Fold this protein.
Amino acid sequence: MMYTVKRIDEDLNLGCEERPDDAPVMAKVTLVDPSGKEVTVKAEDAKLYECNINEGDKVCLDVNNKLEKVE
């Protein structure tokens, strides 16, 4: 299914613990499907930059539930 990226926020919810040094920085990505339903997924912030995924872009989820940009 194709989604539109509505919002990208840094995932700051780590409870009362700090992010471990070896853990990637994560982002919360709010997606909107064609019917207007919103879904929130977590994605590695570096992967979003690597794939050039920004707010307003069209994306889909691959078989591993990773975001892929749709050209």
User: Anything to note?
Assistant: DSSP finds one helix and five strands in the chain.
